[in-house]
Amino acid sequence: MGGMTGMAGIAEGGATATTVPAFPSPGHAEPTHGIGASLTPADAEAKTQGIYPYAADLWAEGLLWAALLRSPHPHARILSIDTTEAARMPGVRAVVTHADVPGDAAHGRKVADRPVFASGIVRHHGEPIAAVAADHPDTARLAAAAIAVEYEVLEPVTDPEQAFSAEPLHPDGNLIRHIPLRFGDPEVVGEVIVEGLYRIGRQDPAPIGAEAGLAVPRPDGGVEIYTSSTDPHADRDLAAACFGLAPERVKIVVTGVPGAMGDREDPGMQLPLGLLALRTGHPVKLVATREESFLGHPHRHPTLLRYRHHADADGKLVKVEAQILLDAGAYADSSSDALAAAVAFACGPYVVPHAFVEGWAVRTNNPPSGHVRGEGAMQVCAAYEGQMDKLAARLGLDPAELRLRNVMATGDLLPTGQTVTCPAPVAELLRAVRDYPLPALPADDTEEEWVLPGGPDGAGEPGAVRRGVGYGLGMVHMLGAEGADEVSTATVKVSAGVATVICAAVETGQGFSTLARQIVQEVLGLDEVYIAPVDTDQPPSGPGAHSRHTWVSGGAVERAARMVRTQLLQPLAAQFGMSAELLTITDGKITSYDGVLSTTVAEALEGKELWATAQCRPHPTEPLDESGQGDAFVGIAFCAVRAVVDVDVELGSVRVVEMAVAQDVGRVLNPKQARARIEAGITQGVGAALTENLRTASGMIRRPDFTGYALPTSLDTPDVHIVKLVEERDVVAPFGAKAISAVPVVTSPAAVAAAVRAATGRPVNRLPIRPQAAVAASG
Questions:
Q1: Are strands 192-200 and 175-183 parallel, antiparallel or unpaired?
Q2: How many CB atoms lie within 10 A of CB 410?
């Protein structure tokens, strides 16, 4: 395991052990509704037929079209902006710049440091300068191009290490946050020491649908914005502050979200859209091009990591020292949160008695960074797993065995001093993927087509291909961290035998709307459950990140449903002189413990309208202190991945053959959905490992399209085997469920890098892996 294997003469791998199936076997039928059922999403048919409405499909009477003028420079001083020519073009209704913003000129989710329109200084390539509304989209684009901007081009700061000594790029300075983590004795030294330098590239969320929106002015002087927001109430508050309006006069209506890997929406698009609608008194629509999408929304933080691992002669970790530098790009966004995760998880799911980590997030003139699935945790996972492979090689140990000697379990401490109180079956996960049978190798004399690295028509030769096996262990936190107030509100109404769920948790593809239906089915025994559309007239439910809607919004739906259940059962129980707790609802029937009472839910509901509203708020967390210590996280999820790759060691091309996954899920709520989320996460991780890197030159994005930015296709997607799902329920989470989709994204790039390392003998310390890094070491 973990070594380099030549193709010749080997028919199959040597592992023979099996593990518990990840999903119910044919002899154990799934339920057809409620928790544990593979319920089909209600919008699946409309989406497959192409009739599901997204923001790009919307229309309104008197519609105008918007276009943005964006900066062609990553760093420049704006000397003048002349909109005269644009404003006088036929069909142009309005041109707005920074001078036309009536309220707050800057916005931001954590720090209000990002201007609606650049005024004075441009800080990144593609920053909005002005916006135009016109009768036709071509007219709007031509008018935006006609705006004359005089720039004094400045030297961009693109190396995050230079940000410490460079002139301030922003009034708030270049340093966004510094976390010095101190845990244990700094004087301890291990018998064996390995060091490494690692670089992680800029991954883009690359949503299948580019950003779009429609803003409609209201008679009261307010505005409604229809867009694919994942945090509508935060967007409403940002917009209201920008427009100089009270929040109740701005309404965000969530349209279909065409793909989201975090906070996918770009407020830099929504805010100009609303300003144009207010200025013109007409509905205004904007559909971003793919280039604008790449230029506007945040990306994964490019990261530089330096590590030193200390261990004893048996491979037990003694101390970890690390320096982590996150490139935030021009503005802060969620960089503080990403840095906290990176520093807290810098040692991985391993027991480390002494840890000393320095973490920084800095501003540069690079494209903005922000929330992308597993931010912070993904970058450090690639680095600490590279260190574990180096340590195993130095000690002559099998990479899986070295990891097993160090994995954490429930009751161990994070380097932040927080005790891991949730289930942490890391050793069980690793053994499951280690013992899963390896895929067969093609025999020497086979006449079957063999997919070489580089594709069926690859230029390589079979004799140059080596197979490698590598491991990755990863972890992510669930919900917000460091004192974030995680709360969600839901209402459940029942009328005429149909339940309606009102909750502002946005369905981003993570399956929340399906889960909400399952929860109500489980609690109330009703099959017909309708999920109301989301807008900001509803109470807030927070952003769709860190699996928080499964936990917080799902918990609110459950509590509201249980309150309705009590309203339904109490009158029946009172008739028979018993407690409502002695009644059960199963398959639409209400029965008592003794069988005296037996009726259907439909009969009990006849003529009644019941409703209840409830909140869910997990236990509080606290910020990390000046030494990086504190109980910052509500819960943690773990994952183990074994990657098998074929590498052409002459050309440096890589093919991922198989990914075996074992995951700590708490409880499987929807088996089909769980499988899809894990497979999608693995695919995104493979992209980060091999192809996805939004490249820049002197701060300029190179080829911001899907020819320059290579997403994995079906030909790049490996076989994904979910070999084990550990359902050890987290007692503080609703239903005991944990995060599913983020942790495979975090773990799989590290596993792929480890497998390429094993095949080539090269260090592989950069993601995505470049061909020159996958050419076998000489000798």
A1: unpaired
A2: 13
| Token pair belonging to 317 | 């970790």
The pLDDT of residue 2 is above 50: no
**Residue 188: what pLDDT?**
96
3-state SS class at 640: strand
Rounded alpha-carbon distances, angstroms, from residue 355 to 244, 310, 317, 319, 349: 48, 10, 10, 5, 13
Crossing angle of helices 742-760/671-690, nearest 10°?
A: 50
What does residue 674 show for φ and ψ, rounded to 5 degrees? -60, -45
| Distance from C-alpha of 140 to C-alpha of 282, rounded to nearest angstrom | 15
**Closest Cα to residue 277, out of 220, 211, 222?**
222
What's 112-179 look like in SS3?
CCEECCCCCEECCCCCEEEEEEECCHHHHHHHHHHCEEEEEECCCCCCHHHHHCCCCCCCCCCEEEEE
- Work out whether the CA dihedral 549, 554, 559, 565 comes out positive or negative: positive
Q: Answer whether residue 27 shows pLDDT above 60.
A: no
CA–CA dist 622, 631 (Å, integer): 6
Query: Residue 779: what pLDDT?
Result: 44
Residue 11 is predicted with a pLDDT of 28
Calpha distance 79→59 (Å, rounded): 38
Question: Each residue of 466-524: pLDDT tens digit?
Answer: 999 999 999 999 888 888 888 999 999 999 889 999 999 888 878 889 999 999 999 99
Determine the 3-state secondary structure of 58 from DSSP: coil
Q: Tell me the sheet residues that pair with 610.
A: 494
Q: What is the pLDDT of residues 403-451, one digit of tens each?
A: 999 999 999 999 999 999 999 999 999 999 999 999 988 765 454 556 7
Cβ atoms of 406 and 374 closer than 8 Å: no
d(CA 726, CA 710): 34
H-state helical runs in 25-132: 44-49, 84-87
3-state secondary structure of 556: helix
Mean pLDDT throughout 296-313?
A: 96
- pLDDT value at residue 636: 94
C-alpha angle 40/372/703, rounded to 5°? Answer: 105
What is the spatial distance between Cα 512 and Cα 737, in angstroms, rounded to a whole number? 13
Q: What is the pLDDT of residues 561-586, one digit of tens each?
A: 999 999 999 988 888 888 888 888 88
Two tokens, residue 422: 């949730």
Report the interhelical angle of 232-243 vs 267-280 (nearest 10°): 50
Of the candidates 407, 374, 508, which has an alpha carbon nearest to the alpha carbon of residue 41? 508
Q: Which of 24-28, 353-357, 367-371 is modeled with the greatest confidence?
A: 353-357
Three-state secondary structure call for residue 32: coil
Q: Which residues pair with 310 in a beta bridge?
A: 193, 319
Phi, then psi, of 177 in degrees rounded to 5: -160, 145
Of 252, 320, 769, 144, the residue nearest 536 (C-alpha): 252
Note whether 551 and 63 are within 8 A (CB).
Answer: no
What is the amino acid identity at position 88? Answer: R
Nearby residues of 702 by Cβ (< 8 Å), 6 or more positions away: 695, 696, 708
* Cα 223 from Cα 270, distance rounded (Å): 12
Signed CA dihedral, 391, 395, 396, 401: sign only: negative
Retrieve residue 350's tokens: 């391993």
pTM of the model: 0.93
Name residue 519's amino acid.
I
768 preceded by a cis bond (ω within 30 of 0): yes
